[in-house]
Amino acid sequence: MKDGRRYKRSCYGSFNSVFRFYKPVLISSENFWKKKVNLYNLNRILYALMLVVFFSCEKEVENAVLISGGLVSSKSEFLVIKNRDITNPKTIDTFYVNKKGEFKDTISVALGYYKIEVDNLNFDIYLEPGFNLDLILDQEKSKVYFKGIGADENEYLFSRQKKRQALKHIDTYKNFVKLDEEEFLKMNDSIGGVYKKLLEDTPIKNIDFLHLERSFIALNMDYNLMSFEVDKKLLTDEKDYKVSINYPKPFSSIDINNETLLKLPFFIPFLANNHYYFLKDKSDLFVKGKFLKCKNCDIDVAYLKEIDKNITNQKIKNKVSYLIAKWHIIGVDSLDLFYKTFKAINTDAYYKKDIESTFNKLNKVKKIRSVVETKLINRNGDTTTLNQYNGKFLYVDIWASSCKPCLVEFPSFNKLADKYIRNITFVGINVWDSNKKWLDVLNKHELKGNQFQLIEGNSTKVDFTKELEINSLPRYLLLDKYGSIIDFNEAAPSEERLQHKIDSLLSLRE
């Protein structure tokens, strides 16, 4: 850790702000023009403002980091520093840039990784109390030059980001699934070796930074190890693929309950996006198309419970369970059970309030009647609503031609529409396409059921997707005979559990 955690707050940005915002106001004010305030009085006012700013800047800043520098080939008036906490993203500070392209200020931050954004140049930066860092940002060359305390760490970090970009076509699941186990393991070790050598070749002596970067390399390799088997199942024809008994075990050098790892932006997503690894030996998992499913269980509820067992550090548990909820609550099989499980294991007030808000919105959506009351057009161009099917159960497919998973489900949709033609009304609602494109897709795929489109150019499109919380497609709904939503995120036509649910509904009705 560097020495010197307290600095006088820099007045550079503050003086800049005074002249930028106050002087124009004073010069253009009615008092100046109508009452002819003389230049002497104006200068006195500005001088007083500068004194106020100066003495306010004399306060020492805890956990201080001094950042200064300049922009090359950029006319941007400000530079933004953000945190890298995916569970609670925030802007840390905004640096104002003067006419010469220079900026300077003191900020208060904890040790960790941050992000700098200026125009189209975005990059990660490592900061810790005591750093005195000077940056020159050249946007034309997409290059950043570092000087001062903290320069070595950030020169390395910038190089590591460039290296990661260069390896993106190799260090990816799309490449790994083409390999057999032996080839993949060699490739994973080789990629890890590239990052390790890059770190070893730097003159960095900062123990905290070295620990975090070594942990990042280990996590990246572990993530690849944990994902290889399931990616083979999901993305190839080897649906029953299994790694060998000698396959390496992850976490040989990582303790997932080590709170220090929260400093790494990759750590929480790493844990929140590994359903298969944590559940494969404890739940009956199978692959349906490109989706991982669980027989006789809600996979997201099971994952929350497994995270609760494996992670003993409450701060880490809170962040991981929150991110799982944030990403998956809309698509869970049992909304009430998922929310109940989340509340039982998460103790953070902010995270609980946010997920509670989403839960309440989803519960509200289940009861709304906007689906049956929305104005639609049919194949003939006539305006109608789904109220015409009052008294019948409705299965609704919301789709668009740009959604490939939507198109894949069309044959199964047609089969079910034929099978249950006398019992349930199958409806397709197209969003986002032009009328011509919609009709072309209907004809090409010979779509059955009752096909409609949201009225093109109407605000109904925005209201419909917003009220139903539709952020991605496809989306399937099941409505009762009164037009209320039974299931906000129903199974796809190809899923066997949909037929079981329909059969149950029909038996109850009889």
UniProtKB/TrEMBL annotation:
<keyword id="KW-0201">Cytochrome c-type biogenesis</keyword>
<dbReference type="InterPro" id="IPR036249">
    <property type="entry name" value="Thioredoxin-like_sf"/>
</dbReference>
<dbReference type="GO" id="GO:0017004">
    <property type="term" value="P:cytochrome complex assembly"/>
</dbReference>
<dbReference type="GO" id="GO:0030313">
    <property type="term" value="C:cell envelope"/>
</dbReference>
<dbReference type="GO" id="GO:0016491">
    <property type="term" value="F:oxidoreductase activity"/>
</dbReference>
<dbReference type="InterPro" id="IPR013766">
    <property type="entry name" value="Thioredoxin_domain"/>
</dbReference>
<keyword id="KW-0413">Isomerase</keyword>
<dbReference type="Pfam" id="PF08534">
    <property type="entry name" value="Redoxin"/>
</dbReference>
<protein>
    <submittedName>
        <fullName>Thiol-disulfide isomerase-like thioredoxin</fullName>
    </submittedName>
</protein>
<dbReference type="GO" id="GO:0016853">
    <property type="term" value="F:isomerase activity"/>
</dbReference>
<feature type="domain" description="Thioredoxin">
    <location>
        <begin position="365"/>
        <end position="507"/>
    </location>
</feature>
<keyword id="KW-1015">Disulfide bond</keyword>
<keyword id="KW-0676">Redox-active center</keyword>
<dbReference type="InterPro" id="IPR013740">
    <property type="entry name" value="Redoxin"/>
</dbReference>
<dbReference type="InterPro" id="IPR050553">
    <property type="entry name" value="Thioredoxin_ResA/DsbE_sf"/>
</dbReference>
